[in-house]
């Protein structure tokens, strides 16, 4: 697969290695009337990393993305994209970004190819160069066979790939993806993930929101967990799992007897959906306690996951 | 933001609409060409049979310029209400464009330029039909074509103001029935303004843009009534810039949140 970036980009590689800050937010706040959607959050995204925003619906992820992409003015705090302020340099910032919005907004009056070509015009890309690039991108995203049919007849995965191809027409340094694979089947999802890893390997910075733990765990170098407009936790996925949960989770039955027994032994647990979740580093002694002293019969041990971290921070209350 | 830049990028947005229009150009061009034929037959031959003339002008020649004015109004007003609303709300086209270096002001300016272009296209086709019927003066009537674009900017801007405040697409019916339809009937279109009571005449000339567009069109197709044309051009030149600015401002308020 040929690289999709222009080549002088990799020529700058030694320069990129010294971890420049792509996005920097301090006390970033967004209010809609009296409602605070994002409340004074701080984060830094280093150039070249894949950075995730995880959170349930209404956490403030999309609002944060919209502030970064200069679509929504911030209400307070500071925000810089490659040192530029979205309030004063939106044009310069938007020229560096590739946006994959949550809601598909391909132009349904045009075909896929026409979508990409007309999009290139908004970036002032000369016609001949735009057509070459569109051809490359249709190949890279594997949508060339369906490039000339109306958008309505395309599958969800195909539309998503076209949106990603569209986000790449300006050879962006930062890709912003708001729930890139929501609603896709596993094949389509894996294909998007694969393309995103290739794009990151080319030196691009990737910022994504998700509520798929697997997606975040696979793609993100670092992530933050948001809820209610605030950041509850931050770090590399593996570190977050290790520090918040431990290595394993024992799932056991949800009876009062087991709860009382765990309380008596001072062993912490969380209420899972259909079982009690006991986070542990070493499962053997706790399993033995559960079996021998708590009268637990059903018992299963599994590695701790990001989902455990997520649920422990955000709870099990249903959203929206 | 420099005006030159606003203009250049607005035309890129305009180009997107032109591309879509050209994809289905046959049906798009058919409508404005057939409409005047129907009107000319119904009003010119039907109604006109009972009316000898108006101020010495045969009835069919009296209404011909009004038909152009109405088509100028309809083309840009409905393009920037229904058309723009669908692109903004259902197709999310504006959201997609403002994720690029193009600003929301440039998107709206491009939409208004496109609305005016629709007026120009409609007026040109209609003029062709009127020339074939031999009911307009030449070559002065050719000036209807550039004038249609200018008047189109006004109606497109008015339409965009409504688009920026309506809660849903059905609400376009309000300006359509309460503003466009009465204006279509009482702007000196099918009968001269001077049959109306004096107060009403003043009201019409003060607030109804179509009255002035009709006056300009009529002066060009009949080669008379030049003082009304000057008044009309002045009125349009004074009113259009602030309405355009208000449309941009209201759209920014709606979309930048």
Tell me briefly what this model is:
By secondary structure, chain A is of the alpha/beta class. In chain A, 38% of the residues lie in helices and 25% in strands.
Secondary structure elements and their pairing?
The complex is a heterodimer of chains A (320) and B (257).
Chain A: H1 8-11, H2 13-16, E1 21-32, E2 35-46, E3 50-54, H3 61-68, E4 76-81, H4 90-96, E5 97-100, H5 112-122, H6 127-140, H7 156-167, E6 174-178, H8 186-201, E7 205-210, H9 213-219, E8 222-227, E9 230-235, H10 237-244, E10 248-252, H11 256-264, E11 270-271, E12 276-280, H12 283-293, E13 299-303, H13 306-314
Parallel strand pairs in A: 3-7, 3-8, 5-6, 6-7
Antiparallel strand pairs in A: 1-2, 1-4, 8-9, 10-12, 10-13, 11-12
Helix pairs in contact in A: 5-6, 5-7, 10-13
Chain B: H1 3-23, H2 25-46, E1 53-54, E2 57-58, H3 59-90, H4 93-98, H5 104-133, H6 144-165, H7 173-186, H8 198-207, H9 209-222, H10 226-255
Antiparallel strand pairs in B: 1-2
Helix pairs in contact in B: 1-5, 2-3, 2-5, 3-5, 3-6, 3-9, 5-6, 5-10, 6-9, 6-10, 9-10
CATH architecture assignment name of the largest domain in chain A: 3-Layer(aba) Sandwich
CATH H level, superfamily name of the largest domain in chain A: P-loop containing nucleotide triphosphate hydrolases
| Strand element count of chain A | 13
Q: What's the number of domains of chain B?
A: 1
- Indicate the radius of gyration of chain A in whole angstroms: 23 Å
In terms of quaternary structure, the protein is heterodimer
Order of helices and strands of chain B: HHEEHHHHHHHH
Number of helices of chain B: 10
Number of strands of chain B: 2
Portion of residues within helices of chain A? 25-40%
Q: What is the general shape of chain B? A: globular
Strand order of the largest sheet of chain A: 5-6-7-3-8-9
Largest sheet of chain B: 2 strands, antiparallel
Within the CATH hierarchy, at the fold level, what is the topology of the largest domain in chain A?
Rossmann fold
Beta-strand portion of chain A reads: 15-25%
């Amino acid at each position: 697969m040929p690289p999709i970036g222009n080549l002088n980009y990799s020529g700058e590689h030694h320069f990129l290695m010294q971890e420049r800050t792509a996005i920097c937010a301090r006390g970033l706040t967004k209010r809609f009337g009296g409602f605070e959607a994002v409340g004074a959050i701080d984060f830094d995204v280093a150039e070249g990393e894949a950075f995730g925003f995880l959170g349930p619906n209404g956490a403030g992820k999309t609002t944060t993305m919209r502030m970064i992409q200069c679509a929504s003015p911030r209400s307070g705090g500071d925000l810089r994209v490659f040192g530029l302020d979205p309030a004063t340099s939106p044009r310069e910032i938007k020229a560096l970004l590739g946006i994959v919005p949550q809601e598909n907004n391909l132009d349904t009056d045009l075909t896929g190819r026409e979508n990409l070509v007309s999009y290139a015009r908004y970036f002032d890309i000369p016609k001949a160069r735009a057509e070459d690039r569109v051809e490359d991108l249709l190949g890279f995203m594997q949508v060339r066979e369906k490039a000339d049919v109306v958008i309505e007849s395309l599958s969800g995965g195909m539309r998503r790939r076209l949106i990603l191809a569209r986000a790449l027409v300006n050879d962006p340094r930062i890709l912003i993806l708001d729930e890139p694979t929501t609603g896709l089947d596993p094949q389509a999802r894996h294909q998007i993930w694969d393309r995103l890893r290739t794009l990151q390997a080319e030196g691009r910075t990737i910022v994504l929101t998700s509520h798929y733990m697997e997606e975040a765990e696979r793609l993100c170098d670092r992530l933050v967990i948001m809820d209610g407009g605030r950041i509850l936790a931050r770090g590399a996925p593996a570190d977050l799992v290790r520090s918040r949960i431990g290595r394993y989770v024992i799932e056991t039955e949800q009876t009062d007897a087991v709860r009382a027994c765990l309380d008596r032994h001072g062993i912490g647990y969380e209420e899972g959906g259909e079982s009690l979740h006991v986070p542990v580093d070493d499962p053997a002694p706790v399993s033995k306690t559960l079996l021998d002293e708590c009268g637990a019969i059903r018992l299963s041990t599994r590695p701790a996951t990001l989902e455990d971290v997520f649920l422990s921070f955000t709870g099990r209350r249903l959203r929206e | 933001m420099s005006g030159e830049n606003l203009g250049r990028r607005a035309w890129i947005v305009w180009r997107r609409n032109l591309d879509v229009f050209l994809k289905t150009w046959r049906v798009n061009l058919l409508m404005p060409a057939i409409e005047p034929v129907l009107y000319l037959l119904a009003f010119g031959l039907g109604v006109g049979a009972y009316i000898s003339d108006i101020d010495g002008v045969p009835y069919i020649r009296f209404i011909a310029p009004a038909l152009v004015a109405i088509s100028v109004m309809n083309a840009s007003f409905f393009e920037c209400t229904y058309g723009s609303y669908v692109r903004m709300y259902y197709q999310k086209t504006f959201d997609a464009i403002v994720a690029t270096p193009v600003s929301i002001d440039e998107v709206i300016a491009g939409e208004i330029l496109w609305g005016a272009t629709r007026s120009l296209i409609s007026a040109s086709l209609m003029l062709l039909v009127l020339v074939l019927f031999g009911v307009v003066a030449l070559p002065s009537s050719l000036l209807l074509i550039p004038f249609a674009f200018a008047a189109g900017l006004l109606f497109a801007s008015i339409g965009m103001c409504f688009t920026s405040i309506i809660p849903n697409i059905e609400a376009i019916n309000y300006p359509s029935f309460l503003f466009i339809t009465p204006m279509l009937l009482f702007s000196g279109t099918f009968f001269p303004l001077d049959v109306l009571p004096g107060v009403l005449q003043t009201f019409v000339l003060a607030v109804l843009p179509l009255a002035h567009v009709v006056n300009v069109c009529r002066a060009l197709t009949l080669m008379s009534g030049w003082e009304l044309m000057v008044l009309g051009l002045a009125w349009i030149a004074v009113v259009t810039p602030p309405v355009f600015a208000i449309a941009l401002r209201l759209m920014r308020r709606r979309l930048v949140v």
